Amino acid sequence: MGQPTHDTTTAESETPNAPSPAEATPPTDPTGSTQAAPESPTDAATEELTGAAAMFANDRASQHLGITVDDHGPGWAQCSMTVTEIMTNGHDITHGGYVFLFADTTFAMACNYPGSVTVASGGDIDFLKPTYLGDELVARGHEVVKQGRSGIYDVTVTRGDDIIATYRGRSRTLPARK
Q1: How does pLDDT run across 39-84, given as a tens digit for each residue?
Q2: How many domains are there within the chain?
Q3: Checking DSSP bridges between strand 136-147 and strand 118-127, what pairing results, if any?
Q4: How many CB atoms are located within 10 Å of the residue 175 CB?
């Protein structure tokens, strides 16, 4: 699918914890056999999660629904979710609350920068087409504007080539805890 395009007022997107070419290839000894890489204090297991990664690591609601974070960076995110039976309403279509939660999770991933705790101050959604049991949904969110501790983010939820919902979230970054 490639990198989501986004027009933001923030730094360029980045892929956190991507190994450098030297880190990606295990070292070899003089006989050509592969050696295990030495442990270092920067291993992912020992790094403290910040921003979106920290938020999602503790987001039991989103994880319970099977939402996955495909990729994210400062000011943007892409997530996926498959509609399950529990998510359908009495019309056998996806309950709007689940579509909202999915878009809201993607919004949260886009607006939580490393070192910040950012929450929603509001959000609106427009449902454009119904979805059904088994549908695979993708949400792409990006920053529209960020001023001080406030921001506006747009999320588009799709099923294949169909746009099924659009969401606009308003964020507020909380002051650091004392």
Answers
A1: 434 444 434 666 788 888 888 999 999 999 999 999 999 999 999 9
A2: 1
A3: unpaired
A4: 7
